[in-house]
């Protein structure tokens, strides 16, 4: 009987010891987690910001329920990186690929222009250009043919002369070009409307389409690059236009709208505002008309 009582006492004592040890271990684990959370909090920082826009001749309005992106690189620089990955079409290479005369290619490079149908084209082209560039000469002849321009010189040779009587062709052509030059200098108004005859060979539309396609690719690639490579956090503003982010490692960040626009009244704006995060501190930033990156207004 005494042995049973002694055995029972031993069991109770062992159970008490085990419970005490488990409790101590739990307390120790809880304290460790608390200490770890405290250390993590001390090693990171926080960000609080508000976003408000002042429309034209109106009160300032909060940017409500709008997603902002906290980036580790300026979105402006990210766009540049996206542009470098997809370079703009080379202008000279584009000109060299055109099915036009070498003289016209050289003229476009020298004048730094591709729009042959510009309204002021007649002022850009000199008499020497008209006689020296086959496309300009043909356009000038067409715009003044059919008796439209009184006294306009006419060639006295034919294409057959070029083959059968090359020397005669050369002399008659030189005389014709000399007569054209004299007429051009005496009647500069005869170049008016020249651009209409050049519409069929105008490369500007094709060049603009190439640039537009590349710009669209970049506008799609930049936001993707920002979110895949440089995104730290996202933050949605509340009804007062406020948002906050915690647990940010110390460093330089940018509060960005990417390629999206925040709207208020007639204003459409974007932000890409730098902010420095320090450990154990909260940075506060006010986004307003004063620090926008781009702005537009409805007419």
What does this protein structure show overall?
The chain is of the alpha+beta class and 299 residues long. Among the domains are: 44-72 and 230-297, Immunoglobulins (Immunoglobulin-like, Sandwich); 99-202, no CATH class. 49% of the residues lie in helices and 20% in strands. Strands 3, 4, 6, 7, 8 and 10 form a six-stranded antiparallel beta sheet that branches. A hairpin with a 7-residue loop joins strand 1 and strand 2 (61-62). Helix 2 crosses helix 11 (204-229). The longest helix is centred in the first third of the chain and has 42 residues, at 2-43. The model is unreliable at 1-40 (pLDDT under 50).
Strand content: 15-25%
Main sheet overview? 6 strands, antiparallel
Low-confidence stretches: 1-40
Q: Decide which structural class fits the backbone.
A: alpha+beta
Quote the distance from N terminus to C terminus: 103 Å
Count the E strands: 10
Helix content: 40-55%
Instruction: Summarize the helix and strand pattern as letters.
Output: HEEEHHHHHHHHHHEEEEEEE
* Tally of alpha and pi helices: 11
- Compute the gyration radius: what is it? 38 Å
Shape: elongated
Kindly state the mean pLDDT as a whole number? 86
């Amino acid at each position: 009987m005494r042995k049973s009582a002694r055995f029972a006492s031993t069991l109770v004592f062992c159970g008490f010891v085990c419970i005490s040890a488990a409790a101590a271990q739990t307390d120790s684990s809880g304290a460790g987690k608390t200490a770890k959370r405290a250390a993590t909090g001390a090693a990171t920082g926080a960000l609080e910001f508000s976003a408000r826009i002042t429309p034209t001749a109106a009160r300032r309005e909060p940017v409500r329920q709008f997603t902002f992106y906290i980036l580790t690189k300026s979105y402006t620089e990210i766009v540049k990186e996206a542009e470098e990955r997809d370079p703009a079409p080379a202008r000279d290479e584009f000109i060299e690929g055109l099915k036009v005369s070498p003289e016209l290619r050289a003229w476009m490079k020298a004048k730094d222009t591709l729009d042959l149908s510009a309204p002021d084209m007649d002022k850009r082209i000199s008499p020497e250009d008209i006689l020296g560039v086959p496309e300009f000469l043909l356009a000038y002849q067409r715009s003044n043919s059919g008796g439209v321009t009184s006294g306009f010189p006419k060639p006295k040779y034919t294409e057959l002369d070029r083959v059968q009587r090359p020397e005669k062709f050369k002399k008659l052509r030189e005389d014709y070009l000399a007569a054209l030059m004299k007429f051009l200098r005496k009647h500069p108004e005869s170049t008016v409307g020249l651009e209409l005859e050049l519409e069929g060979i105008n490369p500007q539309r094709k060049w603009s389409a190439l640039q537009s396609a590349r710009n669209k690719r970049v506008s799609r690639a930049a936001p993707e690059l920002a979110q895949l490579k440089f995104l730290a956090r996202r933050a949605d503003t509340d009804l007062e236009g406020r948002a906050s982010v915690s647990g940010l490692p110390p460093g330089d960040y940018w509060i960005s709208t990417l390629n999206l626009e925040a709207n208020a009244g007639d204003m459409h704006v974007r932000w890409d505002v730098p902010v420095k995060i320090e450990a154990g501190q909260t940075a506060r930033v006010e986004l307003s008309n004063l620090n926008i990156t781009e702005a537009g207004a409805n007419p």
